[in-house]
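TA notes, week 10

Several of you asked for a full example with nothing omitted. So below is the full record: structure tokens for the whole chain, then the designed sequence directly under it. When grading your own attempts, check the secondary structure regions first.
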């Protein structure tokens, strides 16, 4: 791990340890929310963060209200693909998927490791085939291709055997307004990424390792697809997104009114941010092209502020540009020789010549051209100050545009 990565890790741990002092436990979502917005983090990094927190005695939960994650085993009852789905509207697609998924038996730790090793061997064989670059003997090619195919079969087996893990995790996010099948699909992408990244020689239990990849993809999918307009683009917004409703439900269950002021105190954010996020979560987007009323021809877009300058400012700008253009032409008529070339080739063009190019043209040094240009600019400034009243005001008008 590089110095920068270690520093980021230490900073995140400091934030989470400080947070744990006021909470009995931390959720996986708390950990994701603590990650800087500008960085991309491998799940290996997050796994190490969780390990360090556990060493400090911090309990990590799947989600607020869930049982603490067990490193060694995921409850078999929770792995039942049909358990806990009574509130989810089912169709033939879901039923067919769950039925097909349940045909693949669960794996124990030794079986997971054995499959992962076969996958690693297949990757190594694929690399070896590439290195031989068609120079392998028929026997070598046959043996390596057999190992590659064996690795692909092991990969498919490991994925299929853990698809019910995806369902068990996706069930916990079914109240987020995202279709259940979409959650499963995104969780499966996370599962495939876990299979790709898993190292069988580091002593992790695959199902536990994979759960973090699955949750990461599901959480990101929810954040990206809750609304047409993204509502969780910063660390603070992500934290509010997942914690606001939980805190409101907890307070209401205690018979306490979940006012914005109380929520801002409990979640340690500004009251205005609570109100804004609550409005985003409880309202839907309106098309700018939709009419204000059924009998109205005006749309919401008609009342958006214009990005153009006001008409008065546009007219003033055009007048300022015309005055400046005329004065520059008059100034140009006073120039001769090198000054006229520098004025045209350096000051009035969008693609100015280099000092060296002008120097070569006149047989003088680059430094001499720079001196002539500097003198010309001073002469131009003095001319404009003399010819144009309120030059500074004109200058500011052009800059604003």
């Amino acid at each position: 791990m590089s110095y920068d990565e270690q520093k980021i890790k230490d900073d995140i741990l400091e934030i989470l340890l400080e947070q744990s002092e006021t909470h009995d436990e931390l959720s996986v979502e708390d950990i994701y929310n603590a990650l800087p917005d500008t960085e991309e983090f491998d799940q290996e990094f997050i796994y190490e963060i969780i390990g360090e927190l556990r060493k400090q005695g911090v309990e990590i939960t799947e989600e607020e209200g869930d049982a603490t994650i067990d490193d060694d085993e995921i409850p078999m009852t929770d792995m039942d693909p049909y358990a806990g789905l009574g509130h989810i509207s089912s169709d033939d697609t879901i039923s067919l998927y769950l039925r097909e998924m349940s045909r693949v038996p669960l794996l124990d730790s030794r079986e997971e490791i054995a499959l992962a090793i076969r996958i690693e061997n297949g990757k190594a064989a694929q690399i070896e085939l590439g290195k031989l670059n068609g120079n392998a003997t028929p026997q070598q090619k046959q043996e390596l291709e057999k190992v590659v195919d064996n690795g692909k079969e092991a990969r498919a087996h490991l994925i299929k055997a853990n698809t019910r893990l995806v369902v068990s995790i996706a069930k916990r996010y079914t109240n987020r307004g995202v279709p259940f099948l979409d959650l499963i699909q995104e969780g499966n992408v996370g599962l495939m990424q876990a299979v790709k990244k898993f190292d069988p020689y580091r002593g992790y239990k695959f199902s536990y390792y994979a759960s973090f990849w699955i949750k990461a993809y599901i959480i990101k999918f929810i954040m990206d697809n809750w609304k047409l307009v993204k509502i969780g683009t910063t660390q603070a917004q992500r934290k509010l997104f997942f914690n606001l409703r939980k805190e409101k439900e907890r307070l209401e269950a205690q018979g306490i009114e979940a006012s914005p002021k109380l929520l801002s105190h409990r979640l340690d954010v500004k009251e205005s941010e609570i109100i804004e996020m609550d409005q985003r979560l409880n309202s839907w987007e309106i098309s700018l092209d939709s009419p204000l009323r059924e009998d109205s021809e005006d749309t919401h877009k008609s009342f958006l502020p214009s990005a153009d300058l006001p008409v008065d400012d546009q007219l003033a700008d055009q007048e300022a540009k015309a005055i400046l253009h005329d004065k520059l032409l008059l100034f140009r008529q006073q120039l001769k020789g090198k000054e006229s070339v520098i004025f045209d080739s350096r000051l009035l063009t969008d693609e100015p010549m280099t000092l060296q190019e002008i120097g070569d043209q006149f047989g003088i040094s680059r430094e001499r051209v720079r001196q002539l240009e500097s003198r010309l600019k001073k002469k131009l400034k003095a001319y404009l100050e003399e010819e144009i009243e309120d030059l500074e005001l004109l200058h500011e008008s052009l800059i604003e545009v």
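Residues 109-132 form the longest helix (24 residues). Use that as a sanity check on your answer.
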